[in-house]
Write a structure and sequence with these properties.
Blueprint lengths: L12 H13 L5 E4 L8 H4 L4 E2 L13 E2 L2 H20 L4 E4 L6 H6 L14 H4 L1 H18 L1
Parallel strand pairs: 1-4, 2-3
Amino acid sequence: MPGQMGIQSDVFAFEIKTLTSAVHSQGGKIWMQLVHAGGQARAETIGSRPVAPSAVVVPQFPGTLAEFSRVDIAELVALFSAGAKRAREYGFDAVQLHSAHGFLIIQFLSPSTNRRSDFYGGSVENRRSFLMEVYRVVRAPWVMISL
């Protein structure tokens, strides 16, 4: 959303590191929530048509969607991984995957918004594939550091 800080790039690195340092200086802990809007994104905000697991029309989405390709999905997983690595570098104590409220991960899990017929759609096991891939890459930098 316009005006929000994000961790999708290093644009807000200074501000975020200042925030995590301030929290730690007071003895607190701080988490970064990783989220992607998927089909809930607004075309006027992102400058293109929103993309989702499937090109479906559902009331909670603001318009016509494009469907993620398999290449797009691999890139999304890599972006979640990069976000988790930045979160660790910027001093966060943990990350949380936002998997509710109609955002991207739940869009993959829901048969209403995921009507794919490939590895990422159909059965519950397939629909959770995106979540599990993201979970594994997001968890990796945290596990490696804590060993």
